[in-house]
Predict the structure.
Amino acid sequence: MCPRNSLAALPWFHEALPRLDSPPTTAYPRPIMYKHRVIDEPGRRLLRMTVNDSAIEIAVRPHKTLLEVLREDLFLTGTKHGCELGECGTCAILVDGEPVLSCLVLAIACEGKEIRTIEGMADGPELHPLQTTFADLGAAQCGYCTPGFLLTAQALLDENPDPTRQEIKNALAGNLCRCTGYLKIYEAVELAAKRMRNGSDSEAKR
Ligand code: FES
Ligand code: FES
């Protein structure tokens, strides 16, 4: 028997496979439409939280970071994996509306929390104004840093609808971009704020 078949014959091998009611698709569901079952495996802990407006229950290994659980267990790979040291900001998400570096937080510390990732930023087919202005002004090139910038900027605009350029710089100081440069990003945040204040994209474009 080849090693692969030997492994597949072991009962725990099947237990270790992800169990979803339906497999993840290439398009990220919003809200998450599949249910995560509790995997009865020693060492896992049940975690309840809300992710992009969907209440979920998932059994996680306690040493896993929120970043790892989002990407590896929930398949929400829009949250990017960068330095894992709290230095690049690419893993930024919102926890109870506040920007948080998901590489520095244990998932089990998020019991009962409201999590917002980039997959939950648009309202169905309607992009968030920040997403629109980033596209309109070319504020993303490779896009790797963009989810972290967008969610951090969203938290800023939720709290301060009319930030100064310096306030935008301060809010985004923990997010690094290696290819676009920061000017277009600041301008995109300013334009999104203007459009949101005016209540209509088309009006603000005039
Ligand atoms: S991956 Fe979290 S700050 Fe860099
Ligand atoms: S757009 Fe490439 S790192 Fe920011």
Q: What stands out?
A: Confidence is low (pLDDT under 50) at residues 1-38. The first strand starts at residue 45 and ends at 51.
